[in-house]
Specification:
With 530 residues, the protein is of the alpha/beta class. It contains 16 helices and 23 strands.
């Protein structure tokens, strides 16, 4: 069967139920590249479901093997003779091993990375490289003049290595308008406050001057999809050293910096617009010229045509569709990776709250218990970064229980917006003002938080979620809350059994009661480890 035969081939790019939206976006982009070939008699479709739902005598399915193997294990094995693997993982990871095992039984294999092609070859499996490239659908810039109000963006899941690098970069990034979107490393099936999808992601990149790119775990390969999305939107990439930059030349198309220098290099570039603009234009041009998807798309279409010509008839039996499980990250950006929460922790009911008043005064409630640092650093940082604002720093420490000490401060104050810190915590910039602006601009918000350094890591990266909070302790102090919300909770818990879980109890009670929280996505605080 030749690909030009009219009415003979349908190529279905299939994402299983519960598939990562990132993988869905990637398959959609590849499908678009094949569709743009406009081959007579070749129909290109995308499908979110099972291969068995679209299988017929003219259809070949393209799947991401490491996901499809896990999310659709009940599919009839005979269908694999009409399936093509589109691998996206790198050797040395559990995901690659899953991908390789499943792809071995499929009719053809493509990989986005050469090291993956080589690794499969060593196992006796043929695979074709499909280098990622410029995707018109991702381009919202089109080299048109654009105001870039975001200095530095970061888009990447959290792991211990990445958040450690960002924590060390915090002093260099302080004072800049940053947007750090750092969800936990888990299956994400749709847009979330900590995970941007499609147009929202591309719009953020089109507003950003610089994107910091960091590898996950021990990987050294460039995160090509993220880099190409940035380049297509005029955002310059500052990456740590990578093993496969392709046509991107350091200093001409991207900047390459060691992990401990990446914050300083990114910050310096935000202050040098002529150089930044030249890098953006050069990267955009080279990607459009040398990373065109037409040729790899043709290779994929040809492979699908050969599969269709040789595959046997299909059994129309369909596998039952299962609801995808709710998978949570096993590691969270919190002290100790997010310890397990106590079973059956009782929450304080959130009582009805009065409408917010026009009074927007702000107080910093800062307790100092024996395990805390001194107050001088906290007070000095507040006055340095919030000069002239009606901010009161209220200190307390007449009791050994954190909740009781904070409640004494509540009784001695009347400001409607309250920042919660402990002795030794410091403001890094004016992020607290941005958090207050969120509450002032949305009367339905109860609290706001921002990422904070905590020794050599970051905390408060993940928004409160009741299901997650009942499993893990991952949020701490360093937030801004309405007094009315605290009053509705009866203040902070003074339960002696929860003396070291005061903030966890606050977040769980607020969230379980329907309270709403927003995040300013830049590192604004340095919390003293305890």
């Amino acid at each position: 069967m030749a690909p030009e035969d009219v009415g003979t081939l349908r190529i279905a790019f299939v994402s299983a139920p519960g598939a990562s939206v990132f993988m869905v976006e990637l398959l959609d982009a590849v499908a678009g590249s094949v569709r743009r070939l406009q081959r007579p008699g070749v129909e290109v479709v995308t499908h979110r479901g099972l291969v068995s739902e679209v299988a017929d005598a003219t259809t070949v399915a393209v799947v991401v093997p490491h996901e499809y193997a896990v999310l659709a294990p009940g599919e009839p094995p005979a269908l694999r003779e009409r399936m093509v693997a589109f691998g996206v993982e790198h050797p040395g990871t559990e995901e690659f091993e899953t991908s390789a095992r499943y792809a071995a039984g499929l009719a053809a294999r493509f990989e986005i990375a050469q090291d993956s092609v080589d690794a499969l070859a060593r196992r006796g499996l043929d695979a074709t490289r499909f280098p990622l490239g410029y995707v018109p659908e991702w381009d919202t810039w089109h080299r048109q003049p654009r105001e870039r109000d975001i200095d530095v963006a970061y888009l990447g899941t959290a792991d211990e290595r990445r958040v450690g690098i960002l924590a060390r970069a915090a002093p260099d990034l302080a004072g800049l308008h940053n947007e750090l979107v750092i969800p936990p490393h888990e299956q994400m099936t749709g847009t979330r406050p900590d995970f941007l999808v499609g147009p929202d992601k591309w719009a953020l990149l089109a507003r950003s001057k610089v994107l910091i790119n960091l590898h996950r775990g021990s990987k050294t390969a460039l995160e090509w999809a993220r880099v190409l999305e940035a380049v297509a939107n005029g955002c310059v990439v500052v990456t740590e050293p990578a093993s496969d930059l392709g046509p991107l030349q350091p200093g001409r198309h991207v900047l390459v910096a060691e992990p401990d220098d990446i914050g300083a290099v990114a910050a310096a570039l935000t202050r040098d617009e002529p150089r930044r603009a030249a890098l953006a234009d050069a990267a955009y041009d080279v990607c459009r010229r040398e990373l065109d998807l037409g040729l790899p798309a043709a290779w994929l279409a040809d492979a699908c045509a050969r599969v269709a010509a040789s595959a046997p008839a299909v059994d129309p039996t369909r596998a039952p569709t299962a609801d995808p499980a709710y998978h949570l990250a096993s590691w969270l950006p919190a002290p100790g990776g997010g310890r397990w929460a106590p079973d059956g922790l009782a929450v304080t009911p959130l009582q009805p709250r009065p409408e917010p008043t026009s009074d927007t005064r702000l107080a910093v409630l800062c307790t100092r218990l024996p395990t805390d640092g001194g107050m001088a650093a906290t007070t000095e940082s507040v006055h340095r970064h919030l000069p002239g604002l009606p901010v009161q720093v209220r200190r307390g420490g007449d009791t050994a229980h954190r909740g009781a000490a904070r409640n004494r401060l509540l009784e001695a104050s009347d400001e409607p917006l309250l920042a919660v810190l402990d002795g030794g915590d410091e403001l890094l910039d004016d992020t607290l003002t941005a958090m207050a602006d969120l509450l002032r601009g949305d009367p339905d918000l109860d609290a706001a938080l921002c990422p904070a350094t905590y020794g050599d890591t970051l905390v408060n990266l993940v928004l409160p979620d009741e299901h997650r909070l009942r499993q893990r302790v991952y949020l701490t102090r360093g937030y801004l809350v309405r007094r009315s919300a605290l009053d509705a909770l009866g203040g902070f818990t003074e339960d002696p059994h929860l003396a070291d879980l005061v903030d966890h109890h606050f977040w769980l009670s607020l969230t379980a009661g329907g309270g709403r929280t927003a995040m300013v996505r830049r590192i604004g605080l340095a919390l003293r480890p305890r």
